[in-house]
Amino acid sequence: YPQLFAAGMLSGVFTTVIMAPGERIKCLLQIQAATGETKYSGSLDCAKQLYREAGIRGVYKGTVLTLMRDVPASGMYFMTYEWLKNVLTPEGRSVSDLSVPRILFAGGLAGIFNWAVAIPPDVLKSRFQTAPAGKYPNGFRDVLRELIKEEGIASLYKGFTAVMIRAFPANAACFLGFEVAMKFLNWIAPGL
């Protein structure tokens, strides 16, 4: 399972390169919607303004925190899914013959394990990405210090219940879709 964990972690690096700007823009638009103040007319306008104000660094602000979230969480995600598939496979049967309920269960729990690891860095990332420029000169260390001082350690798990309620069905469906697609592709193009 260490190899699966490492492969999952590497997938987190690759997705971060693509996701980090979208995460930044999403967080800024969510804050904007909550405050009622309109600074950005949409995603593209937000990206243009960030680039104009701070260059590529402004667009990618929070990338280290996104890596801190996605690298270990993705490792946990894929490792847990494969481990549970093996645990749930009846003796003498193949993992590829796993029933739909067992695939759903493995996928759902993998999502829960993923987010259990991801929530604290996600909270820090969102706080950092939406802060005014210069508020946290030492990056996530300043965010962590302020958050714990003002709101306590439990603040690192803000949104835990909502995330977990979403995590199980969303990831169960994700892995079921993956397994169905793999069966279909192996049927239509065996050995590809």
Task: Give the helix/strand layout.
Blueprint: H1 2-35, H2 43-59, H3 63-88, H4 100-130, H5 140-151, H6 160-188
Explain what this protein looks like in three dimensions.
With 192 residues, the chain is mainly alpha-helical. It contains six helices and no strands. The longest helix is centred in the N-terminal third of the chain and has 34 residues, at 2-35.
Cα-to-Cα separation, first versus last residue:
25 Å
Uncertain spans: none
Rg for CA atoms: 19 Å
Instruction: Bin the helical content.
Output: over 70%
List the secondary-structure elements in sequence, H or E: HHHHHH
* Main sheet characteristics: none
Give descriptors for this structure.
mainly alpha; elongated; single chain
In short, what is this structure?
With 192 residues, the protein is mainly α. The chain is built from six helices and no strands.
